[in-house]
Design brief:
368 residues, alpha+beta, Nucleoside Triphosphate Pyrophosphohydrolase, 2 domains, 7 strands, 12% strand, DNA-binding
Length: 368
DNA sequence: AAAACGGGGCC
DNA sequence: GGCCCAGTTTT
C-alpha cells in the first residue's frame, strides 16, 4: 500500500523552515561531544565512524573508534595494514565484513584517488561498504554536500513528524528519503543530518519518546494525534532458531589450536577454536581423537555457551582436549567452514581477529 | 523482496 | 526474551 507522495512532500516543504530552525537550535545546545565531531571534520574520521556506527550504538563504537584511529590515523595507514590486524582492531564489534570493506576501501582510495577521500556521492558510493546512508553521511558531514541521510533514527523521526504508519514496509523508504531531502537545508546540510539523528537517538526514541523535551513537537503530527507511542509500529521478527554446535578447544602447552573462518559467512575471516555442527561428523571426530594425548573416546563437554545473535541462537558445547606434545593437524586438512589452522598463544591471538564467541569459548575452557 | 550478517544494552 | 541500533551486500 503506497500513498501518493504529493501531499506529504508539500507538507514537508511548508513546515521545513520551522523544523530546521527549532531542530538546529536544539542541536547547538544538546549535541553530544563525540570523538569524530572535530572542527573541522576529518573525512577519514567521519568515514571510520560511520562504518562503525552501522547497526551499532554510539556508546559501543566510541572506544573502538579511539583505538582504531590511534592505530590507523589516516587512510594510508589502514591501506598499508594487514587484514588480519585490522580484523583484530574490529574484534568484538560485529559485522566483520565492515572491517574487510573498510580495509579494501582504504586501498581503493590510495590506488584510485591518490589517497584523498573522494568528495562526490557517486565516488563515495563506489567504495566497498559505502551505501546510500554512508555516502550521504560522509558527503554531507565531511564535504558539505546536500545529501540527506536516512538511517533508523531519521526514519522514525520522519514517521512521527508526518504520522506515517508504514515504516516497516520497504516501500516507505523512498517516501522517507524524499521527505528527508525536502527538509534538508542548503546551508550546513551535514549539521542538519546530524541533528536529525541526534534527535532520534536522544529524544524521539523508539520506546517512550520524550516529547516534552522535543524541539519540534509543535510540528509533529504523531504528537498532535496522540500516536507517538504507536508510530512506528514495532517490527515483528520470527523467533531465532537454536543451532547446536561444539567448539573443540585443543591445547598444547600454552598454545591453542585456532581456525581461520572462510572469508564469507558468519565470523568471516576471524579466528576461533574450531566449531563443528552437532553431532560432529565421524571424520572430524577421528581427527580430534588423533590429536589427543590420552587414547580413547573424546571427553564430555565441560561447559556450554549460549551466544545470541539477531537471527540465531548458538548453543555451543565446549570440548577441552589436551593434545600430544608433538600433535599437529594434518597438512591441508581443515574443518568445514575454515580456511586454515594454527597453534596460537594468547599473544598471537591479539594480533588477529577473534569474535566475541571465540573469547567466550576460550574463557569457558578455562583459558584467557 | 528477503536473507545474511554481531553484539550488546535496555525494557 | 524481545527490540533495535548513524546499514550493506548477496541471493
Amino acid at each position: 500500500m503506497t500513498r501518493p507522495l504529493g501531499p506529504t512532500l508539500a507538507q514537508a516543504r511548508s513546515r521545513s523552515t520551522a523544523i530546521r530552525r527549532a531542530l538546529l537550535a536544539w542541536f547547538r545546545k544538546n549535541a553530544r561531544v563525540l570523538p569524530w565531531r572535530t572542527d573541522p571534520r576529518d573525512p577519514w574520521a567521519v568515514w571510520v565512524s560511520e562504518v562503525m556506527l552501522q547497526q551499532t550504538r554510539v556508546t559501543t563504537v566510541v572506544p573502538y573508534f579511539h583505538a582504531f584511529m590511534l592505530r590507523y590515523p589516516d587512510v594510508k595507514a589502514l591501506a598499508s595494514a594487514e587484514l588480519d590486524e585490522v580484523l583484530g582492531a574490529w574484534s568484538g564489534l560485529g559485522y566483520y565484513r565492515r572491517a574487510r570493506a573498510l580495509h579494501a576501501g582504504a586501498r581503493d582510495v590510495v590506488d584510485r584517488f591518490e589517497a584523498t577521500i573522494p568528495s562526490t556521492i557517486d565516488e563515495l558510493l563506489s567504495l566497498p561498504g559505502v551505501g546510500d546512508y554512508t555516502s550521504a553521511a560522509i558527503g554531507s558531514i565531511a564535504f558539505g554536500l546536500r545529501a540527506a541521510v536516512v538511517d533508523g533514527n531519521v526514519r522514525r523521526v520522519i514517521a512521527r513528524l508526518f504520522a506515517l504508519r508504514s515504516q516497516q514496509e520497504a516501500s516507505s523508504v523512498d517516501l522517507h528519503k524524499q521527505i528527508a531531502q525536502t527538509l534538508l537545508p542548503a546551508r550546513a546540510p551535514g549539521t542538519f543530518n546530524e541533528a536529525m539523528m541526534e534527535l532520534g537517538a536522544l529524544v524521539c526514541t523508539p520506546g517512550q519518546p520524550r516529547c516534552e523535551a522535543c524541539p519540534v513537537r509543535a510540528s509533529c503530527d504523531a504528537r498532535r494525534l496522540g500516536l507517538q507511542d504507536s508510530i512506528p509500529a514495532p517490527l515483528k521478527r520470527d523467533a531465532s532458531p537454536v543451532v547446536r554446535l561444539i567448539a573443540a578447544v585443543v591445547s598444547r602447552g600454552d598454545a591453542v589450536l585456532m581456525g581461520k573462518r572462510d572469508r564469507d559467512g558468519l565470523f568471516g575471516g576471524m579466528w576461533d577454536p574450531p566449531v563443528f555442527e552437532q553431532p560432529i561428523d565421524p571424520t572430524w571426530r577421528r581427527w580430534l581423537t588423533k590429536l589427543r594425548a590420552s587414547p580413547g573416546r573424546l571427553p564430555a563437554a565441560i561447559a556450554s555457551v549460549r551466544h545470541v545473535l539477531t537471527h540465531r541462537v548458538l548453543e555451543v558445547d565446549v570440548l577441552c582436549i589436551e593434545a600430544r606434545g608433538d600433535a599437529n593437524p594434518q597438512e591441508g586438512a581443515v574443518p568445514p567452514g575454515y580456511q586454515a589452522l594454527r597453534w596460537m598463544t594468547a599473544g598471537d591471538m591479539r594480533r588477529c581477529g577473534t569474535s566475541s564467541l571465540a573469547r567466550r569459548v576460550l574463557q569457558a575452557a578455562g583459558l584467557k
